[in-house]
Structures are given as structure tokens and as C-alpha cells.
Amino acid sequence: MKTKLTLLYFVLTSAFVLAQKRTIPVDTIVTTHHTTSIKGKKINYTAYAGTQPVWDKEGNPKATLFYTYYKRTNNVNTATRPLLISFNGGPGSASVWMHLAYTGPNVLNIDDEGYPVQPYGYRSNPHSVLDIADIVFVNPVNTGYSRTVERKGKKVNRADFFGVNADVTYLAEWVNTFVTRNNRWPSPKYLIGESYGGTRVSGLAHELQSRQWMYLNGVILVSPADYGAKRSDMAVSSSIDFPYFTAAAWHHKMLAPQLQSKDLLEILPESESFAINTLMPALAKGGFISKEEKNTIAEKMAYYTGLSKKVILQHNLEIPNSFFWKELLRNKNGKTIGRLDSRYMGMDKKVAGSSPDYNSELTSWLHSFTPAINHYIKKHLNFKTDVKYNMFGPVHPWDWRNNNTRENLRKAVAQNPYLNLLFQAGYYDGATTYFNTKYTMWQVDPSGKLKDRMFFKGYRSGHMMYLRKADLKAANDDIREFIKASAAKGKAAKY
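The structure corresponding to this sequence follows.
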């Protein structure tokens, strides 16, 4: 009898285990209360970590997005307090980067230049903008803990989520639901997006205003990826990346003495002027450029990049960024430099080759971010699940068709006299380069009528400028001042 009961228990428990499925709740929230110090002042705040559905046309959930919402609770008036809605990029990236390293109340335990240290973890962020704005960090579908929701007899339609325009459409609906649920309609609202998140918030600004009738005070583009510029003619795309070469070469002390002896910000205007006024017209001539002009341009490119005239001519004056990452230090120490932050160095199997074996900066960042965010969510936010936190999630193939986000950003600014733009970029970012960011800002409004509401800030770091301690403070202060400066202050929204 004992044997039969044991067997029955085994069968029942096995069936129970087999019946389990690792899923995230569609609509849930965990609330915790905290105190921190920002700018030397005590800040009390409540953290809401949870999931909120994305609804289909019939009102059923077709996905659920994981988010974290930080709300200050002492000395605040929610109706007048700004709300900052934060997105990262990829596409396919979770909100972890800016959440746990930039604007949030806690940041990674890393050294002053952004490199991993053990024990892994986090510490309070004395520079967070939570003192002046509440913040919600949003994870799009398949990033973080966000997932699609399967309904019986109905397949998930990937076209609803994984494309430039689909992404903007469903996220705008989600933001509307969030703002309504949390009674934030009276609040001044700001979007912040990093990398592809710059594309995302450019589209969202117009989508929110035109489809959700939700008007904004500001959009902050952090190291924005402007695919209109990157995929334009080679003469444009190559030229606007060129000043980055000068910055990275300066950092690694590879420039001629007369440049190397100057400060970075002294030499970048020279390189920028050369890129726009000399290099771009030369590249536009293609194979019809004269031999004399080609040689003159190559010599000047060598001067501003630390590369040899020979390899520049071998590339017909067009240096691929990936080749630069491999070539710059090839004959100095044989190391490569990072893509998203060229302060970082890597070691390849072979010194030979045309591009690095791996992205040295990204491996370093994942080294510190992954354990920290998993620990933080469970310990600090008390949100527990067996679902894996996707640092990068499966969102490809991504539909890039009809990407009009830059033009839609212009429309949003033109239609809303309150709306201001802040562009932030690191000088050592070799993917979404700082001069590309300037170029994007210039191209948002060709008329020049809106330029008084657009601002650029540069930093001596890379894509995630906030990983460097000095820039964490500076960049947050720039956001803080931008939010204060773009407040309505009782003025009517009119031209």
C-alpha cells in the first residue's frame, strides 16, 4: 500500500510540474517605498514595478509590457510635476541601460570610467533627475520581462510589434493607458530615448500628439540613431562620421603633435569644418575626383585621424568605421577599439583583418549590467518571476519600411509651441556618432524656424555617456536644466 501511495504521489506531482508554464502576469504591480539623497536633499519615492497590457481592437490583451515607475512622494504636486517616459533602443533592447545607469534613483556599481567591478550590484544615484521629475522606464515587447500574450486559437501577429511604425503605434496606446491609470494627464510630459530609442521617441512625439491628443513639453534624444542619415549617400554618411575619428584618435594619442597638444574641444571644430566643407564635396565627386585633389584630401584625413595616407587612399577616401576600430592601434599595440565607446580596447585573435572580432565595450557593459539588473529587480523592487530578463530580445526581422520619424518629429515641434528638443551625444561613440547627432538636429527642420527650441550637448565618453562618473553628473544636470527651461510657466502655447 505504501508503495502505491508513493507512486500515486509521484504521478500527481509530476503532472503538476509538467503542467506549469513559465509566463509573466499580464497585469500586475508590486509597490515598494524608498528614500534616497539627490543633490544633497532627501527624496522619498515609491517604486511601482509591474506589467500593463497592450490591448487589441477587441479589448483583449495581445502583449504585456514590464515597466518601472518611480514617483516622488515628499513635497510634490503631481499635477504640475513633470513625467519622464524612458525608452532604450536596439531595436530589441531592454530599458536596463538608462534605468540602472543614468536617470534612475540607483546606478551600477562600476568604476569612475564605467568598467565592471565586483561585487556586482548597484548604489544610490546622487545625480538622478527624480528630484524634479517622476520617471517610467518602459520595456517594449520581448525585452526585459515584456512578452506577447497567446490567446487560444489566435496566433501572435509579429507585424503588430516589430517594425518602425508598428512599434510607435502600440507604444503610444500603451502610454495613453499608463497616463490614464496613474492620473498623469495634467502633468508636463517628456520622452527620452537612447540609440534606436531616438528613432522611437521621434515617431512617438507625433503619434502621441496626433492620435492620442497627448501634447509634450520635451523630447530628449540620447545618442540617437538616425537611419535617414546613416543610409543616405556615402558622401553624406561617411563625412558626418569623420569628426568621431578625430576624437577617438585624440583619446588614444594617435594624432600629430600639433593636434594632440590641444584640448579635444579645440580640435573638433577643425575636423567638423573639414568634414562638411572639404571631405563631403570631394566624396561627392566619386571616381571623377582629380588625382591631385585626392592626394591632398588623403593627407588631411591622415592628419585628422592618425591613419596612414596609404590605407586612406586604398579605401578611396571612404574609411568604414569598422576598419577604423581595427586599424587605429594596429601598429601601436595591436588592440582594437570599441564600437559604441572607443575608449574601450579589445584583443583579437589576429592583428590582421578589417574589423574587430567583438565589441569590447558591449561585452564590458553586459558584464556589469546583467547581474545588477536581475539582482536589483528582485531585491530593491521585490518583483519576482522565473521569466528571463531579456537584455536583448527576439524582435527581428524588423520592418524598416516607411521610416518618416525625423519628419514626424519636425511636425510635432511645429504643431506644439511648448515642445523642445535636447540632443545628447558622446564624442567617442563610433556607432551613432556625435556629429551625426548634430547633423540630425540640423536636418529636423530645414526652414530654421524651429532651431531656437533645439539644443545639443556633447560629452567626453561614448554611446552611454553616463557610465563615466563626470558625465553622469553633467548629463543629468543638462536634462534637469532642459526640463526647467521648457516648463510652460503660465505662458500660452501660441506663436
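Confidence is low (pLDDT under 50) at residues 1-18.
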